[in-house]
Amino acid sequence: MVTNESSFGTYLKTLIKLSGMSQSEFYTKLGIKKPYFYDIVSGRVNLPPLQQQMKIVEILAIDTETQCEFFDLAAKGRGDLPADIVNWVSEDPSA
């Protein structure tokens, strides 16, 4: 679903739409305010940290393949490792 030109914000809006949820319903469930949500999707602020990314995945109930794409785009936007990789390594230090 992701193309090389996709931004995190565009992808997140697509996932919200596919879930059948409104944007206001989504950001309310996530526990953030409207201005911060729009700053995230427009790229004006740093992308959400790991805990918020995990909550987004839970709220949207996205499948494993989509989660990988979501975490990869978020990591690219933050200049970090993907959250799923960080979570996996923290749970299995031998990794």
Beta-strand segment tally: 0
What's the mean pLDDT score?
85
Order of SSEs: HHHHHH
Largest sheet: none
Shape: globular
**Sheet/helix structural class:** mainly alpha
Which residues form runs of ≥5 with pLDDT under 50?
Answer: none
Strand proportion, as a percent range, falls in under 5%
Q: State the distance separating the first and last CA atoms.
A: 28 Å
Helix fraction bin: 55-70%
- SS element count, helices: 6
Cα-atom Rg, whole angstroms?
A: 13 Å
Summarize the structure.
The protein is an all-alpha fold. Helices cover 67% and strands 0% of the residues.
Q: Could you explain the architecture of this structure?
A:
It is a single chain. This protein has 95 residues and is mainly alpha-helical. 67% of the residues lie in helices and 0% in strands. The chain has helices at residues 8-19, 23-30, 34-42, 50-60, 64-78, 83-91. The longest helix has 15 residues, at 64-78. The protein is globular. The chain starts with 7 loop residues before the first helix and ends with a helix.
